[in-house]
Design goal:
One of its GO terms (molecular function) is dioxygenase activity. The chain is α+β, with helices and mostly antiparallel strands. It has one domain (19-309): q2cbj1_9rhob like domain (Jelly Rolls, Sandwich). It has helices at 22-32, 43-59, 76-80, 84-87, 96-103, 106-111, 115-125, 155-158, 273-276, and strands spanning 9-11, 34-37, 129-131, 136-140, 165-170, 181-184, 195-197, 204-206, 215-217, 225-229, 234-236, 246-255. The strands form 3 sheets. Strands 2, 3, 4, 5, 10 and 12 form a 6-stranded antiparallel β-sheet that branches. A hairpin with a 6-residue loop joins strand 7 and strand 8 (204-206). It is globular. 42% of the residues are buried.
């Protein structure tokens, strides 16, 4: 790309000092549509989850046996032998077999209800937080067949309450060269944008119409997170580190008083909760949403293709 036409970018600003000032935290969130927190988790907490994910890849022979496990280098001949439809299944960057094993991990789902995350969103919402159980892991294998996640807004896929926020948490160090998440700062103010089809995760790309917002991004270290509103446009950067696997979690939260769409209470993937719960020890993580008195909103397929929103 010609440097003169390259989209403007700005560096993430650490919102950690605002955690002690909830009103200021909410003002910043309303203004930017996202918040970045440096070192939000202890590094070892993240690396423990990383080890669980990489162990699954290793057992499935998807990691290079000549490299240290925690470095996360793929077994390229095995990965290259996967069909494009296998590696692009459900937008998670790996096969359904691998993802089924990930979704069975109690520690993966427990991480989504980490006390620090719940306290953060309680402060952001000014009320009790409900964590969606539909937790997503991105196990992005290094493959030329893998489609990069395009610019998009989560609300088109989640629906329910527009006040739903996503936490994107890298499971390990994710510099921009490995394909970190980039945020279009302030784009939540534009409302729902028109879309076009895209082969990346979610299948839809937001049409940005020269909105004039700047992309914000940075080099993530294990423990960093970014949280953003369901209308905030975001995208993955391409992985430019040959052979490296990129691991991250998409975790979603909303005010407990707000309505929800029923699919947000289902597992991510064609799985059943009772089967995923096999061997779990924490009863509080199971079917906890049954204690809520939600208003349910139907999924509206029509808003995903509003022609009058296309420029």
């Amino acid at each position: 790309m010609d440097p003169a036409t390259k989209p403007a970018t700005r560096a993430f600003e650490d919102a950690t000092p605002l955690l002690a000032r909830p009103e200021a935290l909410r003002r910043e969130a309303r203004a930017k549509g996202y918040l970045f927190f440096k070192g939000f988790f202890e590094r070892e907490e993240v690396m423990d989850v990383r080890r669980l994910l990489l162990n699954i890849l290793d057992e499935e022979e998807l990691l290079d046996p000549a490299r240290p496990l925690m470095d996360g280098f793929g077994n390229q001949p095995v990965i290259d032998a996967l069909k494009p439809e296998e590696i692009n299944w459900n937008g998670i960057g790996t096969t359904q077999r691998v993802y089924h094993r990930v979704q069975k991990l109690e520690a993966f789902h427990a991480f989504a209800q980490h006390p620090k995350l719940m306290a953060l969103f309680d402060a952001l919402f000014g009320e009790r937080t409900f964590p969606h159980p539909r937790n997503i892991a991105r196990i992005m294998l290094p493959s030329a067949s893998l489609n990069v996640t395009p610019p998009h807004q989560d609300f088109l896929h989640i629906q329910g309450s527009a006040d739903t926020w996503t936490c994107w948490a890298p499971m390990g160090d994710v510099p921009r060269s490995l394909g970190g998440l980039s945020i279009l700062e302030g784009s939540h103010e534009a409302g729902l944008l028109g879309v076009t089809a895209n082969p990346g995760a979610g299948g839809l790309e937001s049409i940005l119409c020269s909105l004039g917002y700047e992309w914000a991004e940075g080099d993530y270290e294990a423990g960093d997170i970014v949280v953003f509103h369901s209308h905030t446009v975001h995208k993955a950067l391409p992985n430019r580190e040959p052979g490296r696997v990129r691991l991250s979690l998409d975790l979603r939260y909303q005010p407990a008083s707000q309505p929800i769409e029923r699919a947000s209470l289902l597992p991510h993937g064609p799985f059943e909760w009772e089967e995923l719960y096999e061997g779990w020890t924490r009863e509080d993580l199971k079917h906890y949403w049954r204690r809520e008195d939600f208003a349910f909103l139907p999924f509206d397929e029509s808003i995903r293709w509003q022609k009058d929103k296309i420029c």
